[in-house]
Write a structure and sequence with these properties.
By secondary structure, the chain is α+β, with helices and mostly antiparallel strands. It is built from ten helices and eleven strands. The protein has one domain. Strand 3 and strand 4 form a beta hairpin.
Length: 219
């Protein structure tokens, strides 16, 4: 998954989301969908419900879906525009209460923070409605999990076969934030040409035995 976030000086901006699922993982999800009775996925292999995703984004104030497509059953492309980054985050009680993502202003500077742990991971589906399917949620960390990375990889090997662990290890989520103005500071990423890039190994996100924290401050 890659997410490119552009924030303008007035707080408006755009988000481009791209998701690509490997053939091996797609086959596993289709098999699990058959067991779970999710007929459309099981029969047609369609992993993303575009109507539900559209509804999920447009149910939030100040967001407009500019493009929504699934060129292949295992891929998703979403482009949205938001009226105010502060409005997007402040309007969602779940995001505010769990601290998944926050936006603050102080002394002329603006800060976007991301905090993920096992207790708030489920709220990420609020940010990305396409991942709210139980098939995806079941692969992520649960509140009372104590699983380690090694144990998770063993589970993946059992579920996906010998290729599974290597596939998980090389998968990642990339989030790029490009603000209009000067980047004052950032934590957890790499800054290049006015953009901060956060590259999160998928295994770290799926296990979350330690919290993940990222931030960008700009003015």
């Amino acid at each position: 998954m890659s997410n490119t976030i552009v924030v303008k000086g007035d707080g408006s901006g755009t988000v481009a989301v791209r998701v690509e699922i490997s053939k091996l993982f797609k086959e596993y999800l289709v098999n699990m969908a058959e067991i779970a009775g999710q007929a459309e996925i099981a029969k047609e292999g369609k992993l993303f419900d575009l109507k539900e995703i559209q509804k999920g984004f447009e149910g939030r104030p100040g967001i407009t879906v500019k493009r929504l497509a699934s060129p292949k059953p295992e891929s998703l492309e979403v482009d949205i525009a938001f009226r105010s980054i502060q409005e997007v985050f402040a309007s969602d009680d779940a995001l505010k209460s769990t601290g998944v993502i926050s936006f603050t202003q102080s002394n002329g500077a603006r800060t976007v923070k991301v905090h993920l742990d096992r207790t708030n991971y489920k709220q990420t589906s609020t940010l990305f409605p396409g991942l709210s399917n139980p098939l995806f949620e079941g692969m992520g960390p649960q509140v009372n999990d104590t699983i380690t990375e090694a144990e998770y990889l063993e589970m993946i090997k059992f579920s996906l076969g010998d290729e599974g662990p290597a596939l998980v290890k090389k998968s990642f989520i990339e989030m790029s934030i490009r603000p209009e103005g000067e980047i004052v500071s950032q934590t957890g990423g790499t800054q290049t040409n006015g953009t901060v890039v956060f590259r999160i190994p998928l295994l770290r996100l799926l296990v979350l035995d330690k919290p993940l924290d990222y931030s960008v401050t700009f003015k």
